[in-house]
């Protein structure tokens, strides 16, 4: 029995998303990971409300994410980039304190799946998911392969179910 399909009675739910790439070097033309997230969401029928590229500045990331999470018509915010351990990788640090609830299983399963693909390098990932002011937030590595893995194996199979649970409370 699989739980990765949305509930049949919730298949028509409208889900609004924002995609943020955190990078000091990417542009809309070179941001393959941000584009992949948008493409996957749109192919699955989800709405992209906004797409941003932010520098690896924790204060700016924190302020932008917190502000976006206050929007009543935003359901999902997906960040990519800045989840490693390099000095400029500050996304996790910028958002961890504003997540009221975390989804530990997301990071655990993501690192497990990553380990199967890249081996022990997976320990450096600080991918995280949680809830910020009623918005579901995912923070992914900037690697296009890591984004593809997270979107296909974890986020897209459960997104409608998670939003349905979140909105029912």
From TrEMBL:
Query: Quick one: a GO biological-process term for this protein?
Result: Mo-molybdopterin cofactor biosynthetic process
Q: Which SMART domains match?
A: MoCF_biosynth
Which segments constitute the MoaB/Mog domain?
18-162
Instruction: Show the stretches that span the lipid bilayer.
Output: none
Looking at the Swiss-Prot or TrEMBL record, what is one Pfam family this protein matches?
MoCF_biosynth
Signal peptide stretch: none
Q: Name one GO cellular component term.
A: cytosol
Which keywords fit this entry according to its UniProt record?
Molybdenum cofactor biosynthesis
Q: In which pathway does it act?
A: Cofactor biosynthesis; molybdopterin biosynthesis
Which SUPFAM superfamilies does UniProt cross-reference here?
Molybdenum cofactor biosynthesis proteins
Against NCBIfam families, the record matches this protein to: molyb_syn
Protein family according to the UniProt entry: Belongs to the MoaB/Mog family.
Q: What does this protein do?
A: May be involved in the biosynthesis of molybdopterin.
- In Swiss-Prot or TrEMBL terms, this protein is called Molybdenum cofactor biosynthesis protein B
Q: Which organism is it from?
A: Lyngbya aestuarii BL J
């Amino acid at each position: 029995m699989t739980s990765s399909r949305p509930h049949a009675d919730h298949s028509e739910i409208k889900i609004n998303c924002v995609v943020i790439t955190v990078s000091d070097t990417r542009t809309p033309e070179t941001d393959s990971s941000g584009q992949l997230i948008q493409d996957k969401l749109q192919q699955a029928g989800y709405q992209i409300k906004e797409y941003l590229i932010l520098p690896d500045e924790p204060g700016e990331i924190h302020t932008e994410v917190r502000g976006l999470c206050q929007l009543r018509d935003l359901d999902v915010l997906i960040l990519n980039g800045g989840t490693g351990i390099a000095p400029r990788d500050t996304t996790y640090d910028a958002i961890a304190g504003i997540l009221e609830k975390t989804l530990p299983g997301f990071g655990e399963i993501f690192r497990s799946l990553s380990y199967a693909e890249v081996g022990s390098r997976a320990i450096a990932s600080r991918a995280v998911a949680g809830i910020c002011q009623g918005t579901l937030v995912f923070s992914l590595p900037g690697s296009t392969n890591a984004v593809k893995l997270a979107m296909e194996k974890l986020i897209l199979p459960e997104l409608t179910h998670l939003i349905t649970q979140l909105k029912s409370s």
